[in-house]
Fold Galactose oxidase/kelch, beta-propeller.
Amino acid sequence: MSLKSLFWKRIDLKKQEINPKIEPGQQLTYLTDFNKYLFFGGLEQQKQNHNKNQSNDKEKQDNKNNLQGDGTPNSQKSGGIKFSLGAKPSFNLGGQKSGGLKFSITNSTANNNTQDFVYILDPAEYTWKEQICSGKIPTKRVNFFSWYEAPYYFIYGGEGVNGKILNDMYVLNIENWEWKRFFWLDGPQPKADSQLVNMGVNKYLIGGASMPENWVYNQVWMFHFENVVWNTSGNELPGIYWEQIEIQNDEDFKPLKAFSAVKVSESQIYIFGGYNQNKQCTDTSILLDVESQTISEFETKGTKPSPRAYHKMLPVKDNLVCLFGGVSCPEDAIKGPTSTMLNDFYILNLKEGYFTRPNVGGYQPSSRYNFAMAGNQSEMASEIMLLGGKSSENLCDKYIYILGEMIKDEKEYWGERDLSSKQQFEEYRVALKNNKKKKEELNNVSLQTLEFSQAEKIMNEDKRKIAELEILLKKLRNENEQNNQNLQKYKIQQQKKNQEHIITKQNYEIESQQIEQKNNELQDFVGQISTLLAYERKRRKLHSLKSFQLQDCLRKAENLIITIDSVYSKGQKDDLIEGVLTDDAIKKIDRKKKEHKKQLSVFKEDFELIYENEKKIKKEAKEKKNNLKQSKIMVSQQWKNFLSPEEQRMFQVKFEGYGTPKNGKK
C-alpha cells in the first residue's frame, strides 16, 4: 500500500439482504486463497436468513439440524430431557439395557450459547453469505483471536457469555465447514486482553490480565501444531503442548494488556501501546525476539501515536505497519464522559523506524475501539477493511470502511449521488466560463452543489499542497537514504582498510620477529663457525709444526740412512764387511732397506694427501666465508625493508658492525 492518495470508502450494510449483527469484539479474517473475508463472533442472537432460499421441507429440516450443531437437542423437548425410540438397546442411567427406549439429559440452552454459522464477505461485490457449519460448534464469544492457514480457520480464547474468560481453541476446515476443538492438559491460565501472534510454525501468546482480579502479566507462551493429527474422525484434536518462554531480560518487559502486536520478521514481534499495571495508557514501543528470548526498546521518529489501548495494527507491504483507532484514557474512565476515543491512522516504516500520519480522504470512520480489521495485501488489490467496535456513544455505525488507494473510477468511491452533484457542478463551471445565461444556470444549481464547489476547491488546494509535500518528503527521504547508504558504505570501507592495516601490521611484526630470530640464529652460527675456524687454525698450526719436525727428523734419518747405505755399499765393494756380517745379516739389512724405501713411499703419498686436503679445507673455508658475507648483506637488506628511516639509522651500527670485532679488525 502506497502512502499516496489514500481514501476511505464506505459500504452501507443496510442495502444487503443478508446482514450480520455488528457487535464490539468480533473478528474479520482474510481468506487468502478464496479472496474473501470471514466474519465471526458476537454474543447476541444473530438473525438467521439461511432458510429463505430452501426449496422444500426436507432441506429446511436438514438445514435446521445443521444449525443446531452436533449434540444439540431437537425441537421435541421435555424439561431438558431428550427421548427417542429405537430398535437398538441402549444403557440407561443405572447401566441396565432397555428395550429400545433411551433418554439423556441435554442442555436446553445450547442454541443460545453457540453459533453454528459464519459470514463470508465477497469484496468484489460487497455481499454477505451465511455459511452453515457442523462439528464441535464453538460457544459465542467476542474479543478472541483468529487467523487463517489454508484450509484452516482458527479461533482462540476471548470473552464468553456473562463475561467468562475463555481459554479454548477451535479450528474450522474451510473445505467441509466442520468445526473441531483442540484440547490440552497443561497451558496458560485464561487471560483477557492478551495478544496472540502467528509466527509461522510457532504461535506466541503475550501478556493479558486475569479476571476478575485484573492482574496484568508479561508472560509469553508458545505452542505449535506439529503433533496434531488432523484427519481424526472425532471432534476433539489432541497434540497441543504449551511452553512458557522465559524472557532473559524480563525486567525490561513491563506487564501489559489491551496492546497490539504484529510479526515484523521471522523472529521479531513489534508491540505498541496497551494498559500497564496502573491502568494507564502507554505508548510502549518494544521488540520481542523469540529466538534470543529478549526484549529491546524500538525507538521511533516522526509523528508518533499518542498513548492508547484497544487499537489495531496490521502489517502491510514493504516493511510497513498500519495503526488505527483505540482509546486514550485511564482504564476506569473508558465508559465515562471523559473517555477519549480515537480514529487516527498511522503508518510505521519498520526499516527506518519512522511514524507518519498520512492525509486520508473519503469517509473517515468515527472514533472507536474493539473493532474488527483485516487486510488484503495481494498483488491484485491492496486494501484494509474495518467495521464494528465501540465509541463514546456505545455502538458504532453499521458501515464497512475500506481503505485503499485512490483510483480513476471516482464513482466507486464517491457513490452515485455525490458523483452526480460533482458533475452538476462541472456543468455549472463550464456555464460560468462561457458566460451564457449565468443567472438561470445559477438558479438551477442546488445548495449541495455550491457546498461541493467550495469543498472541492479546498480539497484540490489541500491535495496540491499534500502532493508537493509528499514530493519534497520523498526527495528528502531518498537523499537521506542515499546519504545513509553512502555513510554505511564509507564506514564499511574504512573498517575494511583499518582491518587490512591491522593485518598488514601484524604480518610485518611477525616477519620482523622471524627475521630477528633468523638473525640471532645466524649470529650464533657465525660465532660457532668462528670458534671452529679458530680451533681449525690452531690445530692446523700445530699440525704444521709437527709436520715440519717430522720432516726434519725424516730428513736427518734419511741422511743417516744414506750415509749408512753408502758405507755399506763401499764396504761391500771393498770386501770390508765380508766375514764381519753373515749372509743372514746382509739379507736382513737388504730386507730392512727395502721396507724403509716402501715406508718412505707410503709417507710421501700420505704427505701429498694431507697437503691436498689442507688446500681443499682452505678453499671451502674461503667459500663459506664469502657465503656468510653474502647472507649478512641479504639479511641486512631484508631487515631494512621493514624498518622506518629512523629505525634504520638506529640499527645501522648493528648491521654495519655485524661480525666485526670491537677493535675494528675482522
User: Anything to note?
Assistant: The chain has two domains: 6-52+106-298+360-407, 451-656. The radius of gyration is 53 Å.
